[in-house]
């Protein structure tokens, strides 16, 4: 009785309070993960042990939504995955019936050429379907590999790729293009458990392999990456995937980018993000200076490690955290060069020397290189660069020669373009075929805008900025040591009336670097 009276009194008081002053019910955003925010939110009204979900359209401020959900890393507000395009389920066009027909076509082709082999397995990927072939005893694998063009003809496709044998299996893989591709979105990989829970120092999301498994590599283990492919093959999109992967995982205090973009159109979109060590570099002469600064930074870090008694950047940062003083941990430095060809054609000697020295020695110091080119020729990807960049990604190229220049083996000429790649990490016996993730400019602008709005202004390294303005380059003396073959080289050019590096290489039997240096010295003495 008393409780009923109290309830009636409170009810009368509540009805007299103006609606504008009443407390509004707010959806509880924290019960959803970042990638699970529904388009319609539900207000939950508790009635004892049961909960009723009353559907109501939620119109809420995006900033409020983000602040309630996104994790923070050392005060760094991680961009929300909602800034990226949603992936959606796409029906596989190659149905079970089509695959059965393809199996019959493949076995019939083998029979026509007198090869006893059976299809023992089928794996359907986003771009290609791999048919696993088991040859009968006594059948040479070379007989199957030599039929690549005939198999492509039987399927009415441009080309097929044959992997003989499949690593870890006693079977040969024949990869046939799907009738329709299934798009792979970057968001799909970033929200996967492999990316979220993987113990990577520098995780980079690349794509999805034939079996549907996300391809996520650790740049700290690679430790440098060479990317090459023809125009439109997916090279630049791959670079964007790598950069966004780092941004979504690590704070600006943990990693810094140096971006070199001679074409001025690919990486300029990232200008202003807090992860930049310095503004985007577009001038080639400044790029060489900055590479030389990185060499000096590398040497400085080695001295710091020696004084601290540690072996690498991870050991030093752990040492700094343990001594509990004001010393800041050293950030990783990732150098991204979008078009290597511009550097190699403008300053072949200086560029090659700087890149090779960095690639040889910077792994322990936390400095990593990612270089890309659409001209996979031997004058751009020289022997020295290939040796020092054991981890490589090849996109579609036009010839077997280009494929061998990148990967030291054939296969990239059989790729289909638009993100179809061969990823060869350091230590791998054979490359992994994968479909690269897809990200568009609008998504990148969304992430960049969010970072510029919600993160502090970039703190550029003043030492590098001052060094960019300096007239003299580090490690460059005014009088270069004259090569003992200089006079012979001059005589050859005068007699042949052709001042080319290739002639000096052929006549003097020297390497590209030395011949290019001789040409440079001649130009200076003109």
Automatic annotation (TrEMBL):
Pfam families in the cross-refs: FtsK_alpha, FtsK_gamma, FtsK_SpoIIIE
Q: Which InterPro entries match?
A: AAA+_ATPase (IPR003593), FtsK/SpoIIIE/SftA (IPR050206), FtsK_alpha (IPR041027), FtsK_dom (IPR002543), Ftsk_gamma (IPR018541), P-loop_NTPase (IPR027417), WH-like_DNA-bd_sf (IPR036388), WH_DNA-bd_sf (IPR036390)
Cross-referenced SUPFAM superfamilies, in alphabetical order? P-loop containing nucleoside triphosphate hydrolases, Winged helix' DNA-binding domain
Give the FtsK domain ranges: 212-404
Q: SMART domains from the entry?
A: AAA, Ftsk_gamma
Keywords from the named record: ATP-binding, DNA-binding, Nucleotide-binding
- Can you tell me which family this protein belongs to? Belongs to the FtsK/SpoIIIE/SftA family.
What's the protein name? FtsK domain-containing protein
